[in-house]
Amino acid sequence: MTVSTEQHEGNRFAHLPLSTSGAQETTLTGNALLRTPYFNKGSAFTEERDVFKLYGLSRPNDLAKNTFMTSLKEQNEVLYYRLILDHLKEMFSIIYTPTEGDAIADYSRLFRRPEGCFLNIDDLDHVEDDLDQCGEAEDIDLIVVSDGEQILGIGDQGVSAILISVAKLFIYTLCAGIHPSRTLPVVLDCGTNIATTQRRTLLGQRKARVQGEEYDSFFEKFLSACRKRYPKAYIHFEDFGLNNARRILDRYTPKITCFNDYVQGTGCVTLAAIMAAFKVSGTKWDEARFIMFGSGSAGTGIADHIKDAISQNTCKTREEAAVQIWCVDKSGPLLNGKKDQLTPAQLLYARDDKEWEGKEHGDLLSVVKEVKPHALIGTSTKPGAFSEDVVREMAENVELSVIFPLSNPTRLHEAKPQDLYDCTDGKVLVATGSPFPPVKHNGQEYDISECNNSVTFPGIGLGAVLSRTRLMTPAMLVTAVQALASEAPVLKGSGAGLLPDVEDVCDISVKIARNVMNKAVENNMAQEKKIPDNDKDLEEWIREKMWNAQYRPLKVVDKSIANPHARGEAGVAAWQREAKRTA
């Protein structure tokens, strides 16, 4: 319904008492006006904002805005998503990082009602039943699960991690049209290693985090229940700790369709930026040398994707490709002589100690001098690690340096983009882990691309969901990356960016999903039948299946033929189905 605020011009009785036309009189302004129901127009005030001092009367901080948006979503999903889509750049940091981190840290205080599925490590007998209450077998396309051990920037948050699962699903819907009522956020409550004094105020388990065999049994119980109840669901692992993230991914990738954004998503978006950079610089994949400074889950995940890309772009095996990558931590290159201190992911990139006998290798500068890399990538969280000496040394040996300081947040970046341009006299291609303003150098302005996972993982998930792929293979991820890299502004003549803007993410997700689905069919992984076999038809087919934030006409149907969605029992209202079942 449209509410008109226009005056009724020409009404000859408008001057009479109780007239309902013309302007209303009021003495109220500001908050007093907003709190008077018969005067308040909500978001419909126009030029009156200045007259009645309504400017600036928004929520006082980003966390308050995040809380308001959560309330809006519970009332009207279409309006929630439309508002964000129409103001994506402004709203992205409110509903996702970094503000979502504040909401997670404050979850136990702000808690209003549960959203998603909470599974308790001390209550294994109820795992299946808890998941069963969230929908029928055909209701769920996508599950995001976290155990909350390593929420980016704020560490172990226990059961509060349900909000990172929720936020990730928001991004899937916003950026790839995954239907919001066909998703399920899950948190695995295994306790928390947060300080004992703080545990007393937390929701969920108020004990030290459980690890080892008990943890593994719980995780296996969860996945078995998912496969039993939702056999077609794509499962996204989010913010697991260093000891579990890669180990779990490696264990279950050959068994189910799964994905870890911190390991794989970061790797994919970084690889896309590298692909675009190499096309500009003319660097050949069989000759390229890479230094990964920071060898945790993100660093080794990026290295894995680089290794796969080298293998697919050359005749080299993945083992041969790994030789072109030097993973470095604060003490120098990863070496076999210290293998008892390395994770399984790091062992894949450990070098023979003899390579460095008699050579300086105790810091990054000495390694750069020896390796002469074409690409230097930072995930170290060591601010300023890409010093002027390091950058100048790199620029001495390659015509166009590729340097990506990716650590988050901004204060932990290995280098500032402006400094990289100044040190190399502009002979550098840069992507960062956080947003930066354009750089000015020699009278020109250069866009700095952000390696934002949100331009990557939604499209990959969309392709997996629509193809019903049995597994997520390395080849499918590489082809997804190729779709993203091909949209780089620097390659399309529309700017200097190595990655497309997040505002274009819906169109990009279609192209990524197309490539993933084509590869799934080619590899005999797709379970969906009658997938179009040409790109034009396939993209149209994909768009038709993407949920849009727009109001659609409603049609009454009989309960006997209605599905849970038609009965209003999907998504956040799934509890109604169980209530009826047990009544």
Automatic annotation (TrEMBL):
A divalent metal cation binds at E238, D239. It comes from Ampelomyces quisqualis. One of its GO terms (biological process) is malate metabolic process. This is Malic enzyme. (S)-malate binds at N408, N452. Keywords: Metal-binding, NAD. Belongs to the malic enzymes family. The keyword Protein biosynthesis does not apply. The active site is at Y96 (proton donor), K168 (proton acceptor). InterPro entries: Aminoacid_DH-like_N_sf, Malic_N_dom, Malic_N_dom_sf, Malic_NAD-bd, Malic_OxRdtase, NAD(P)-bd_dom_sf. Residues 73-253 form the Malic enzyme N-terminal domain. Its cofactor is Mg(2+); Mn(2+). Residues 263-521 form the Malic enzyme NAD-binding domain. Divalent metal cations. Prefers magnesium or manganese. One of its GO terms (molecular function) is NAD binding. It comes from the Eukaryota. Pfam families: malic, Malic_M. GO terms for cellular component: cytosol; mitochondrion.
